[in-house]
Amino acid sequence: MRRLTLALLLSALSAASLMAFLLPDLQGQTQARSIPSKSRIVVPAGTTLLLALTEPIFAKSAKAGDSLYAETAFPVAVNNQSAIPPGTYVQGQIDTLTRPGWFSPHAQFQIHFTKIIFANGYTVELVGPPAEGALPPPASDVIAAVATPYVLVSSANDVLLDNSAQIEMVLQVPLRLNAAKVAAAVRQSNSGLLARIQSATRCRPIPATPGTPDTVIPGTPGTPGTPPTVIPGGPGMPDTVIPGTPGTPGTPDTVIPGTPGTPAVPCPAAPVVTSNPKVQNHSQSFQVTAPVQVFGKPLPAGNYQVTWKGSGPWAQADIFQNGNLVLGVRARVVLLSKASPGDMPETRAGPDGSLSLRSLRFSGQNLALYFDQGAD
To answer: Does the structure show a pLDDT above 80 at 44?
Structure first.
């Protein structure tokens, strides 16, 4: 019995020693696994950043390919942690531009963004589409960050987007940031620069002028003349009439016309960034060849139609089969760098081998629907 007790005691001591030896290593592995998650901030796809332009876009010179500069006007936080402070610089490029006309007093842009520069110099490249001729992975046609501002502006304006004009940039892919560098940038950020930006328009209103009145030079009055003088004649004799002198006409007033006034010339109203009042309805067909899930909801193999409204970044997507609503889900509307060559449903395999529908691309369309939460 004593031997059994001693053996159990030695076993317990050995186990305790082993745990004491292994515990620091296990703790180190746990800390090592936790460090990456704490050292990185992931801003999910679908996040909207409010930007203010730091340089204007002039109506006469603006064209596709021009660079654009702005800074964030509002902070972005992820899980109560500052990710992008106000005053962070953003660089972009104009892809397309629709100019205002006499019957269409608006301009519309598509802009993609290339980099974000924090106050401490920390720079993050926004990965765009690959070079022509490259063999990209399936999602390389997604524009990393994009804006499509709709501007109420007339053809008389000299600027299409003024200094400090606010536009919305949408992250279409997750943005991964170094948490330590972001924290240093937060301490150095200064959002007071926006208040000092002045309008870039060269238009100056011209006030009206009253003109001058007419100048009147009075004429000369006429003379009445004298009446005839009548001398009565004697008996049987006629009267003797001495003619009077006729009157003389006067001269009329002379009028020298004044100069007319000039009307005021106002400047056109400043450009206003707003939403496009024409909300487009979309309807596309697609096919899945194997059962898939959409946010955990089953979608059997077959032919379907999907409808949604607007250009996103988020929209309600309704999926129909034979005219019957199958399911309605929240989807991201993503702009692509080029039109899709065909209908391309993209699926993802889960740990159990089941397939989930990640995205839908449609033939000839430069947009896609993504059925994810924007974090991957």
So the answer is: yes
